[in-house]
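Can't paste images in this forum, so I'm doing it all in text. The chain is below; anyone willing to post the predicted structure tokens underneath?
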Amino acid sequence: MSEMRMRQSMAELEREFEQQAASDRRQRQQLRRSAVERTRVRRRARIEQGQRARFIFLLLAIALTVVVVTVVMFETLAWLMG
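Text version of the structure:
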């Protein structure tokens, strides 16, 4: 009788161990997926920040070019008229 109980308790222990191992695997996979997603989000944010900085630089360069060309054009016109 005690041998039968021992077999049952061993089977229960093995079943619990397998369930715990499966649970641990699922948790590790979930952690891995969330880490990958966080990395993807950070990379996307870094790329967007760089794009924003380049766009602002482009706008400033265009504005500066417009100002320089306008000043030079009027200076040249004033020189020709004078």
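The longest helix spans residues 2-81. The radius of gyration is 35 Å.
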